[in-house]
Amino acid sequence: MQPLSRQGIAHRAARDIPEGAYVNLGVGIPTLVAGCMPAGREVILHSENGILGLGPPPPKGEEDWEVVDAGKRPVTLLPGAAVFSHSDSFMMIRGGHIDISLLGAFEVSERGDIANWKALGSNLAPAVGGAMDLAVGAKQVWVLMEHVRKDGAPRILERCGFPLTAPAAVSRIYTDLALIEVTPDGLVVREIVEGLDFEGLQARTGARLVLAPDCGVLH
Amino acid sequence: MIDKRVKSLADAVQGVPDGATILIGGFGEAGVPTELVEALAEAPPKDLVVVSNNAGFGRGGLAKLLATGRVRKIVCSFPRSAGSVVFEELYGSGKLELALVPQGTFSERIRAGGAGIGGFYTRTSVGTELEAGKEVRDMDGRRWVLEKPIRGDFAFIKARRADRWGNLDYHSAARSLGPVMAAAARVTVAQVREIVKLGEIHPEHVVTPGIFVHRVVQVN
Questions:
Q1: Other Cβ atoms within 10 Å of A41 Cβ, number
Q2: Do B80 and A125 touch (CB under 8 A)?
């Protein structure tokens, strides 16, 4: 079995983003999607701090620390970009104008609950940023994450153990092992990585999976 | 003659009372009025409440103000980040109260404060820990959380240019919370790179009209 790299997960999700979509990239694996868009496909990236038309990082030495992404790293503005206030930015997010929100997560439940803002058992101060607004406000929420924790414990569960970011928000999960859709009929497996069978995937998942009749190979 | 220009940073931050709520603009390092905040840290009033998206980095700016021990509470969406050492020390030792607010709710509460709105219902935080203690109601088949406005006694923001009437424009993505906070404080102070003649900022390009701005100070 050859699980996808973090870059590989980003590449797989990028292929599903349609031409013309307005997309917000959360911190973590989603930020890698900016460098993975298929050539010739126009997708407009949104950043919560007030950018539409986010471009790649600038060359070293040309950074403007007032032009940054959600993770506070320097980015560029593409021709056609717009800058605006937080008020307008979150109007876009909360008003349902963003087509797809790509988020990282600690856990996702079988009904699409997402937990991605607060770890259990941590002494660190909590931080939430725009995660709750994105999870609730975007037309679609896709999660990009590793299928299991470092200790092998599953992250896709019947119920999230970590504090929720939003209930019933996620429609797709891209992991290093599979592409899974959250549907009213349960978690439907659309693709599995080469060398892993459905039973093997189920064993690494904390909720019941349903195999799509046309399940393909994740690459 | 209307003239909102002040000569020094000390004049710009003068008159902040004990117990004041201060809105501080910016996101990460973008749009942060570092020099205003550091000027306040020179002789800070006590029991301050700071409203800021982040909780400072390193030892300068907001971190310097927090380190004076004069800030009682911070209202914030993302306090913890690389370099937020002063915040983490104070929070970890129970010397600083934190009110964690989702960023869109944070922005909208401040907007409501500036717009004279007594509260609003949002779906953000429904079904999470952060709805605790708030009114939740069903409307049109969905659940909504009531959020109250935030107003400041003072707002410190950073803009690119100002004129003597207080009209402002901004540098690129550093706009962020500036226009929202400007309207939500009794006294709004803008630090700017350049002060220009009336009319030099084209009327169509004024982002924050001077009605929301009370003092401007040039910082080079």
A1: 13
A2: yes
pTM over 0.90: yes
A42 is a catalytic site residue: no
Residues with Cβ within 8 Å of A43's Cβ and at least 6 positions away in sequence, in order, are A17, A18, A19, A20, A21, A23, A37
Neighboring chain B residues of A131 at a CB cutoff of 8 Å: 102
CA of A109 vs chain B CAs: smallest distance (Å): 14
Cβ A137 vs Cβ A98: under 8 Å: yes
Q: What is the pLDDT of residues B83-142, one digit of tens each?
A: 899 999 999 999 999 999 999 999 999 999 999 999 999 999 999 999 999 999 999 999
Contact (CB<8Å) A49/B124: no
3-state secondary structure of A15: helix
Q: Tell me the ipTM for this assembly.
A: 0.93
For the domain with range B9-117+150-218, which CATH number is right: 3.90.1300.10, 3.40.50.2000, 3.90.1150.10, 3.40.1080.10? 3.40.1080.10
Query: Domain A6-218 sits in which CATH superfamily?
Result: Glutaconate Coenzyme A-transferase (3.40.1080.10)
Number of inter-chain CB pairs under 8 A, A vs B: 140
Nearest to A85 among B124, B126, B178 (CB): B178
